[in-house]
Amino acid sequence: MFGSELAFSPEVVLAMWAAGVAGSGAAVAYWRIVGPGFLWLIAGTVLLIGGAAWYFDRGALAAAAPLGGAGAARVARHSRAGPNTRESSSVLFLVGASVAGLPVPAITGTAALGGITGEMLLGHWFLVSPRMPRWPLRALAVVGGAAIVLDWLVHLAPGIPTATPAGSLIASVALAATSLLLMAAVWFALGYPSYPGVMAATGLSYLAVLTALGSVILVRALAAGVPPL
């Protein structure tokens, strides 16, 4: 069991979220399946979430990471510089999320939030690029769904705190399971050959972003011995 109040702090959760979005954006940039407009969207999202993380932790690292995300937008038209800048921003956020000395939970949280949020943003971008291949959407859904399960196991499988209320534990399991089921539904929806399949997948991923964020927050609260329910 990982017990640390730092792992439950708002800046850590936001840093993981921003790291995940920047990482998924870097992957999409390497795949070269979209134009610079989507990469601007990723950079803006990273800047927004990263700016919120900086609000709670105004250190030099927390300031550098969002600036890296903003820099990614500036070089979005350059095939090599753009992905590298997003990667750098993702790593900076990930380091910031690991300040408690717990890199594994930071990685699982980053992958969960990044995969699911990245899938949602890319699915939404399908409106702009309807000829975009669907396999990247499925790849991000698999990453997000698998990571949300690993994130729960990393925190609570080694040992559930004895003082954990049953309602909080049930809610944590429900949020993680719902996120996984939504990502599975996204996978199958993307198998529908016409455009409504992508629309359904995108709508499901909107819900998954909410449940995944709830799962990431709640499981850390329980592991830290601070049950919010």
- Tell me the helix content: over 70%
Radius of gyration from CA coordinates: 17 Å
How big a fraction of the residues is strand? under 5%
* Shape designation: globular
Distance between the termini: 19 Å
Name the poorly predicted regions: 1-6
**Structural class, please?**
mainly alpha
Sketch the topology as an H/E string, one letter per element.
HHHHHHHH
Number of beta-strand segments: 0
* Mean pLDDT metric: 80
Tally of helical runs: 8
Give the biggest sheet. none
Keywords for this entry:
76% helix, 8 helices, 229 residues, mainly alpha
Give structural notes.
There is one protein chain. The protein has 229 residues and is mainly alpha-helical. It is 76% helix and 0% strand. It is built from 8 helices and no strands. The chain has helices spanning 10-31, 36-56, 60-74, 81-97, 103-125, 135-156, 166-189, 195-223. Helix 5 runs antiparallel to helix 6 and helix 6 packs antiparallel against helix 7. The chain is globular, with a radius of gyration of 17 Å. 51% of the residues are buried. Residues 1-6 have low confidence and may be disordered.
List the helices and strands and how they pair.
Layout: H1 10-31, H2 36-56, H3 60-74, H4 81-97, H5 103-125, H6 135-156, H7 166-189, H8 195-223
